[in-house]
Amino acid sequence: MSYTAGRVSDPPSPYPMLPFTPFTAPEHQDFTLPGERPAALLVHGYPGTPYEMRPLAEALNERGWTCRGILLPGFGPQIETLPARRWTEWLEAVIDALASLRADHAPLLLIGHSMGGALALSAAARLRPDGLILLAPFWRNRGPLWAALPLLKHLFPRVQPFRVMKTEMDDPKLRAMIQDFLPEVDLNDPQTIAAIRDFVVPVSMFNELRKAGVAGYRAAPKVTCPILVIQGSQDVTVHPEDTRRLAQRLAGAVRRLEVRAAHELVFADSPAFPEVRQAVLQFADTVLG
Counting Cβ atoms within 10 Å, is residue 252 exposed (0-12), middle (13-18) or buried (19+)? Predict the structure, then answer.
């Protein structure tokens, strides 16, 4: 089933007060880099966009690979519809895109970052690509609150994450990250800062993320293709020991690489990106045979 913009009607918006429209820059949209017959599908994480996958796509494209970066339903410029989305829609979008590439391309390489890794696992169990790359693959979070999400979504349906985390908007690192990802945001505007601090997120969104992770973990023993797993040793979002545990469940031949990086290891400005890039290209060469 293909995603269409009209699938969800009149969804609630998590951005009722933001004085800007997020993710309007073209780099947050789907992209296709035309190449030769081998093709790679790249799946972003939560709450990312294809922007985060473009550096690896460009590296593969230089080697002749046709690369597509998919925008998952409800993300990027569709972010206002996210509260009404279900994880199965994200998986269907990945499966549709992979099947579409298969019609004209071989071999096929599937690449997923974070939540995209969980979706890639579920998709690979069904469509069996020729190779799979998991980058800091999400399958669970830690702590009792995460386990209680199915109940919490009913008891506390909305949270303000920036207030819960006591985020300080004058943190240079945080500001730089937001500005890089959302260049249209004026972080010197008091109204914008107030809106970000009051930003409301339905708890059900995180429950869908949890479901995607559980499904990916359960699908792992059914994935039989060659697999490259790359994990940041300093990642506090996806813990290295959780990725090691996931890798042990995979049925296919697994290559594991741990790099000195946090969760954002796919970004070109990550210190570990050259090592990640090289590992991806070397693995892609083995898929070519």
Answer: middle
DSSP 87-114: HHHHHHHHHHHHHHHHTT-SSEEEEEET
pLDDT at 26: 87
Q: How far is CA 21 from CA 80, 199, 201, 228, in A?
A: 10, 13, 16, 37
The residues near 133 (Cβ < 8 Å, ≥ 6 apart) are 109, 110, 111, 112, 227, 228, 229, 230, 280, 283
In a 10 Å sphere around its CB, with 0-12 CB exposed, 13-18 middle and 19+ buried, how is residue 9 labelled? exposed
Report DSSP letters for 198-241, one per residue.
Answer: T--EEHHHHHHHHHHHHHHHHHGGG--S-EEEEEETT-SSS-HH
For position 17, what pLDDT does the model report? 43
Report how far residue 90's alpha carbon sits from residue 84's, in angstroms, rounded to the nearest whole number: 12
Residue 88: per-residue pLDDT: 97
- Please name the residues in contact with 191: beta carbons below 8 A apart, sequence gap of 6 or more: 19
Best CA proximity match to 40, nearest among 192, 228, 239: 228
User: How many alpha carbons fall within 13 Å on the CB side of residue 190?
Assistant: 0
134: alpha, beta or left, given left = phi > 0 and alpha = psi -120 to 50?
beta
Q: Which residues pair with 110 in a beta bridge?
A: 41, 132
Q: What is the mean pLDDT of each run of 10 residues along the chain (289 residues)?
A: 34 47 82 98 93 97 98 88 90 98 97 97 98 96 52 44 52 66 68 62 74 96 98 93 97 97 92 97 96
What architecture (CATH level 2) is domain 26-144+205-288?
3-Layer(aba) Sandwich (3.40)
Tokens of 185: 């945001």
Residue extents of the structural domains in the chain: 26-144+205-288
